[in-house]
Amino acid sequence: MSGSTRRKPGSSSRRESQARRRSWCCSFTVPPSSPENLSLSRSHSHPKTLSSKPTNSSVPNSPLSTKSGLSLVGRTRIDPRRILSPGRVSPIDSDPTVHSIIQEEQEDPEEIITAVDSSVPDPKPESFRAPPEISDNEASVFDVRLNLRGKTGGGCLVLELNSQVLSTSSEVFAGLISEFKRNGSSSSSKMCRIEVPEVENLGVFRETIELMFEDDIPKRLSKIGVYRSIDILEVSAGIMFTKGVLSCLKYLEAVPWTEEEEEKLRILFSRFKFDDVTTRDILARLYYRNSVDSQQHLARQIVWSITSCTDANARNELKPLVKGLLCRSSVYEKDQADVNKEDLYSVCQSCLSSIVCLFEEASDTISSEKLAKKEKGRPLIERISREVDNINWLLEILLDRQMAEGFVDMWADQGELIKMHENVSPMVRYELSRVSALLFIAMGTRKLHCRSESRSGLLLAWFGPMLLDFGWLQRCRKGLDMKALEEAMGQTLLTLPLKQQYMLFMEWFRCFSKHGTECPNLSKAFQIWWRRSFLRGSETYAIETR
């Protein structure tokens, strides 16, 4: 076609032949210009749309519009542009005349005419066959113009469609088209215009309409992908496109999801109510429908299996995984039930009981009958280290969930372990001080808050063993920050009453004067205690501020 909008001879028959092979066409548009007022078109101002009995038909729970639903609109006057066949677009006159436009419409009233915004790239039109139950003559008639207006950005999409296809596929469009015909507009030459305002995603809506003309919807969805198919499912549910909804659900149930896609499905199912039989398989993947009792003890079963695991490599792999799942800062924590505190403490008590038995074996206080039943395949040091690692791992989970106050009292009450500590080799007993070190660091860094009696009981019980084991902790740190431990021990001591501080600081002073660097360096905390105990008033304030 040349720069003029007039057709060449024979073009009408060719267009009629091509029209039988397609059931829709579309283009991205700005609000159409009026051929009666070309000055408005040249100045890019929006023409008025004449309304002929607009309806207020809205879509319940539809994602298409938040304020108004689908509606019938009057005839819109538009600029001349023709889609002659799928994939080929005619050029546009730079300055068309009103006479030529009106003459074109009179010569071929069924010609497809749309206005295209030059700032938007031309989409590639695709040809789709009508459903088998619709004859070719019916499918070749474009008697519905669907005008989609974007919610943001002011975009617009116009689709020329067949009313039979829309009515057969969508209950919402069937109702609107039926209402249009009941209002006396049953003439075959008159176009039914439907406007959908505030569409969230024009591309998704267009793809949903395209599925109505697809013979193999699952194949098309597999090309689109999961994330986009969820959007199409939302639009299909809004316009009551039953075949599209069923196809999307069937496809989504058969493929894996990413976490983002799973969360998007959860949000969608919270907004829409689908048939239980249709969504049963997908809901079974989204929600765990088991008894409440089994869910309450699930964390205990997982934790117990890790603490009883004998394979070191598997245990080291599983501990960070489960800790990440149970921590409050975990990205996986959503609306899950809270971890049962009693279950975690029961596992801690079991690990403590195992350590007591191992120290009895190390101190030769266990009977030969009981010793025969113990695990003898691995060295004693390795078994003790494994149980201490388990306790520290559980303690980190308790600290993260702010449940560790009770463990302070539990650890302070291990009088039997404290007695055996003096009789066991230093290369074995220092493992116990690793537990005390983690508690001291948590208290000194203000991550663990407990009563004064609990702090006093812990320090009176385990401060002496810590002084004896500090040298071994320096040589076998196992990830322990010794500087942080020294600072935290001093800060924790300063939280006690001054009388107890005096007793413990003097014990440290005697030990440090004999063993030097084999003991923790608490000189900074000792100075603070000295000033607070023996200096008064403004002198204390002046020194501490310096």
Automatic annotation (TrEMBL):
The keyword ATP-binding does not apply. Residues 1-97 are annotated as: Disordered. It comes from the Eukaryota. Residues 35-69 have a biased composition (Polar residues). May act as a substrate-specific adapter of an E3 ubiquitin-protein ligase complex (CUL3-RBX1-BTB) which mediates the ubiquitination and subsequent proteasomal degradation of target proteins. Keywords: Ubl conjugation pathway. This is At3g05675-like ankyrin-like domain-containing protein. The keyword Nucleotide-binding does not apply. InterPro entries: At3g05675-like (IPR038920), At3g05675-like_ankyrin (IPR058039). Residues 292-536 form the At3g05675-like ankyrin-like domain. It comes from Lithocarpus litseifolius.
